[in-house]
Design a protein that fits this description.
It is a single chain. This protein is of the alpha/beta class and 568 residues long. Among the domains are: 165 residues, inorganic pyrophosphatase (n-terminal core) (Alpha-Beta Complex); 103 residues, Diaminopimelate Epimerase, Chain A, domain 1 (Roll); 116 residues, OB fold (Dihydrolipoamide Acetyltransferase, E2P) (Beta Barrel), CATH 2.40.50. Strand 13, helix 19 and strand 14 form a beta-alpha-beta unit. The longest helix has 36 residues.
């Protein structure tokens, strides 16, 4: 990957230098923070000031009035969710709201990923209407489910869509469609998560509904809104950053027994929870239920206030997560054998009937990271097979899939870096060559991806002062990345592998004034970086982030490897 050192910003460019260390001032500037007022909002968002009026969203008032009418008339409400770590928390938000106001004539429905697929489906709509559903509220889905919503309408049920995905040209004929990405919608934050939209709906209900709920109670729902916002990797700017930051604060004080059990078992110190704990510990377990089993158990895990029920749900998620890891390892071995025969190609198209579709995105990501190429992985059973794809960043997956003949894919979707697709069994055998040809067609449109580096520093510059100032920039994520540093011409003192399977790698680099600092990464080795010799005494150019290492007798600072190049 190419590197690009961000432009050097000085005092004449921004007033931030008067109030913050140079490194932090530059990092803020490059993340769109230019004034002291913006910096204050960034570091210390205020709940009352920095969340937008929910009624700025198209159809929010219409949706809110219909739900209040349903509550007053004791109509049967179905919360129709999604099976991932945005849809599950979004469902919990509405569940908690109804429970809080004492309304019990509702149920939560989470579709089975493999049996039903994403979004509303006609079979589920029929079943739920036969059980008396009067109104559906979708969360994190629905905006493209035209047929299923038509079916609900034909059965006499109203549908209120709350979603954050891109709508198609024609909207479903729902009673209300609440989605900040709707054409013409004036809501300022277009990139809310599904759980963020659900939270805004509850805000709206509490503003105009005559419920006996103390003012500000909804802040306790920010744990779920923050969880979904961080897990779904929406840009952590503006309102999303506010939701994520307050969400982490609530997660640190959670009263949800399922989360408490997870913290205990994962040895997470509650008041130290970060976005990384969500990414590496919480979200994978919630997603494991959808990938490997029954996703409704994940909903029970976050929503139940019964200790025994929540603990049982946690154990289920833990077991499914272990299954998921083992299955990914198994499929990766098979996939690598296939890749060996096609590694010369620009597009790696691999698959096998029977591979679990729920883990194919993980496999595609690992293969793309390992080979630095765009990867398509397919699996499943029956006449229509499912798959996931990941780009190496050099081409747009949507552009690539749109270039192939229409008969290849039954369906596809996604964005620049990640996507999903389905194709008939008959199309599998020629699809790899066709994708390779499509790649050659758009090769001149390749995106020349560059790694943006915030600052060039020396190992001796790494200090607790810089680290503590950087941590105030958290939570980190999309559009608010952790600052990245270049360490030029540094000497390797020692190297070692670590981990149960010795599949992680660490180097010690010498400081100018004596001593060393460690740099590490997971699932890499001495051969992971082209044309680089990672041996003691060799010099390298290292790009890394700074993080705190809590292992050992006392915390210390270390570097997390992002990339390594040979010395120029």
């Amino acid at each position: 990957m190419k590197w690009k050192l961000r432009d050097r910003i000085s005092e004449k460019d921004t007033e931030l230098f008067k109030y913050y260390p140079e490194i932090i001032a530059r990092a803020l500037f490059h993340r769109g923070i230019r004034t002291i007022e913006e910096a204050k909002k960034y570091f210390e968002p205020k709940y009352e000031e920095d969340l937008h009026d929910p009624f700025l969203m198209t159809d929010m008032m219409k949706a809110t009035l219909r739900i209040i009418s349903a509550i007053n008339n004791k109509e049967r409400i179905v919360i129709y969710g999604d099976y991932d770590c945005d849809g599950i928390p979004a469902s919990a938000i509405l569940h908690n709201f109804f429970k809080k106001i004492g309304f019990n004539n509702f149920e939560v429905y989470i579709p089975h990923r493999h049996n039903e697929g994403y979004g509303m489906n006609i079979g589920a709509v029929n079943e739920l209407c036969s059980r008396g559903a009067d109104i559906f509220i979708t969360v994190d889905c629905g905006v493209t489910d035209i047929e299923a919503i038509d079916e609900a309408n034909s059965l006499g049920a109203d549908v209120i869509v709350t979603d954050h995905h891109e709508p198609k040209e024609i909207l479903p004929k729902a009673f209300a469609v609440v989605d900040p990405k709707r054409v013409g919608d004036k809501y300022p934050c277009k990139m809310l998560s599904g759980s963020g939209v659900a939270f805004k709906l509850v805000q709206a209900l509490l503003i105009i509904g005559n419920f006996e709920v103390r003012e500000g109670w909804e802040k306790w729902l920010l744990d779920m809104a923050g969880l979904g916002t961080i897990a779904d990797m929406v840009p952590l700017q503006g309102e999303n950053r506010t939701i994520a930051k307050f969400g982490l604060s609530v997660l640190r004080k959670t009263k949800r027994p399922g989360l408490q059990k997870l913290y205990e078992n994962m040895r997470i110190v509650p008041h130290h929870i970060t976005e990384e704990d969500i990414g590496f510990s919480i979200a994978p377990r919630i997603n494991a239920a959808g990938r490997m089993g029954v996703p409704s158990v994940a909903f029970t895990f976050v929503s139940s206030m019964d200790n025994k029920e929540a603990s049982s749900a946690y154990e289920y998620l833990e077991n499914k997560n272990i299954e998921r890891k083992n299955l990914v390892t198994e499929v990766m071995k098979e996939a690598l054998n296939i890749v060996d025969k096609i590694s010369h190609k620009n597009i790696l198209f691999v698959g096998k009937e029977g591979w679990n579709p729920g883990i194919l995105g993980l496999v595609a990501g690992k293969l793309s990271d390992e080979f630095g190429k765009t990867v398509f992985v397919w699996g499943g059973e029956g006449e229509t097979l499912k798959g996931s794809c990941r780009s190496d960043g050099s081409i747009s997956l949507v552009k690539l899939m749109s270039t192939v003949p229409s008969e290849i894919f039954v369906d596809f979707g996604g964005h620049h870096l990640a996507g999903g697709f389905s194709l008939s069994k008959n199309s599998v055998f020629g699809a790899g060559d066709i994708l390779e040809g499509a790649y050659m067609e758009i090769a001149d449109e390749k995106i020349d991806e560059e790694l943006a580096i915030d600052e060039k520093i020396r190992p001796d510059d790494v200090s607790w002062k810089i680290f503590d100032a950087m941590e105030k920039m958290a939570p980190f994520g999309v559009s608010n990345t952790r600052p990245v540093f270049l360490f030029e011409h540094v000497e390797i003192y020692s190297v070692k592998k670590f981990g149960k399977k010795s599949d992680h790698f660490q180097i010690e680099i010498l400081k100018d004034e004596g001593g060393t600092i460690s740099a590490y990464d997971f699932f890499i080795d001495e051969n992971s970086f082209p044309n680089v010799s990672l041996r003691p005494g060799k010099f390298i150019d290292l790009v890394a982030t700074i993080e705190k290492n809590n292992f050992g007798r006392s915390p210390n600072l270390r570097l997390k490897i992002v990339d390594i190049h040979p010395v120029k």
